[in-house]
């Protein structure tokens, strides 16, 4: 009988990917978003004021 | 799917804004009847003399409502001046006898394209007396900058 001397390898845990900091992206996205949001309502109220 | 905490924030903000914008437009359109200036009516632009535009001008529909049938052409409008009393609602029906023009009253929501073969329609209530300038804001040829008419709103 052949003895298996292959060592069972333990599953290596996946390397945890380090989360990038998205703080700068968040600020910029919210800056552009607020600009669009505010301009939309300014234009809408301009339209309503001229009815 | 893993989403970063910040991604959740801006996606919620984006989708929320979109839903809010569409809801405001939906309520304005379906509950309050707001609509872009348009009309399904069409007309033969080569033969306006035999259409409702044979005698362009203003006619009174009821006490405070008027209908203004106007023809835009290079480079002016027919008639060049109309007169309505203050407080009246004017329904504009406009067509073109040649190329694409527009009909815009600065400072109001009246701003529409005038396309040959189509009758474009919008309405406006004039609450302030005075002389209102109408301009063409669609480039229509060499005399485009001279194309204008006047609406006199009398007290």
From TrEMBL, chain A:
<keyword id="KW-0812">Transmembrane</keyword>
<keyword id="KW-1133">Transmembrane helix</keyword>
<keyword id="KW-0472">Membrane</keyword>
<dbReference type="Pfam" id="PF08113">
    <property type="entry name" value="CoxIIa"/>
</dbReference>
<dbReference type="InterPro" id="IPR012538">
    <property type="entry name" value="Cyt_c_oxidase_su2a"/>
</dbReference>
<protein>
    <submittedName>
        <fullName>Cytochrome c oxidase subunit 2A</fullName>
    </submittedName>
</protein>
<feature type="transmembrane region" description="Helical">
    <location>
        <begin position="26"/>
        <end position="47"/>
    </location>
</feature>
UniProtKB/TrEMBL annotation, chain B:
<keyword id="KW-0186">Copper</keyword>
<dbReference type="InterPro" id="IPR034214">
    <property type="entry name" value="Ba3_CcO_II_C"/>
</dbReference>
<dbReference type="GO" id="GO:0030313">
    <property type="term" value="C:cell envelope"/>
</dbReference>
<feature type="domain" description="Cytochrome oxidase subunit II copper A binding">
    <location>
        <begin position="63"/>
        <end position="155"/>
    </location>
</feature>
<comment type="function">
    <text>Subunits I and II form the functional core of the enzyme complex. Electrons originating in cytochrome c are transferred via heme a and Cu(A) to the binuclear center formed by heme a3 and Cu(B).</text>
</comment>
<dbReference type="GO" id="GO:0005507">
    <property type="term" value="F:copper ion binding"/>
</dbReference>
<dbReference type="GO" id="GO:0016020">
    <property type="term" value="C:membrane"/>
</dbReference>
<dbReference type="InterPro" id="IPR008972">
    <property type="entry name" value="Cupredoxin"/>
</dbReference>
<protein>
    <recommendedName>
        <fullName>Cytochrome aa3 subunit 2</fullName>
    </recommendedName>
</protein>
<dbReference type="Pfam" id="PF00116">
    <property type="entry name" value="COX2"/>
</dbReference>
<dbReference type="InterPro" id="IPR051403">
    <property type="entry name" value="NosZ/Cyto_c_oxidase_sub2"/>
</dbReference>
<dbReference type="GO" id="GO:0004129">
    <property type="term" value="F:cytochrome-c oxidase activity"/>
</dbReference>
<keyword id="KW-0479">Metal-binding</keyword>
<dbReference type="InterPro" id="IPR001505">
    <property type="entry name" value="Copper_CuA"/>
</dbReference>
<dbReference type="InterPro" id="IPR002429">
    <property type="entry name" value="CcO_II-like_C"/>
</dbReference>
């Amino acid at each position: 009988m052949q003895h298996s001397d292959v060592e069972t390898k333990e599953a290596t845990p996946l390397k945890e990917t380090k989360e990038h900091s998205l703080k700068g992206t968040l600020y910029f996205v919210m800056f552009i978003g607020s600009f669009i949001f505010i301009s939309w309502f300014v234009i809408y109220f301009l339209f309503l004021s001229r009815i | 799917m893993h989403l970063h905490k910040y991604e959740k924030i801006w996606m919620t903000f984006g989708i929320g804004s979109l839903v809010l914008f569409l809801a405001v437009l939906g309520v304005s359109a379906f509950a309050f009847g707001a609509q872009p200036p348009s009309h399904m009516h069409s007309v033969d632009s080569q033969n306006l003399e035999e259409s409702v535009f044979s005698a362009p001008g203003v006619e009174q529909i009821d006490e405070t409502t008027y209908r203004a049938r106007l023809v835009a052409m290079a480079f002016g409008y027919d008639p060049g001046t109309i007169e309505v009393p203050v407080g009246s609602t004017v329904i504009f029906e406009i067509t073109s006898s040649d190329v694409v023009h527009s009909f815009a009253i600065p400072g109001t929501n009246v701003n529409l394209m005038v396309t040959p073969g189509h009758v474009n329609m919008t309405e406006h209530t004039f609450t302030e007396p005075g002389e209102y300038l109408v301009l063409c804001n669609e480039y229509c040829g060499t005399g485009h900058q001279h194309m204008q008419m006047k609406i006199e709103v009398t007290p």
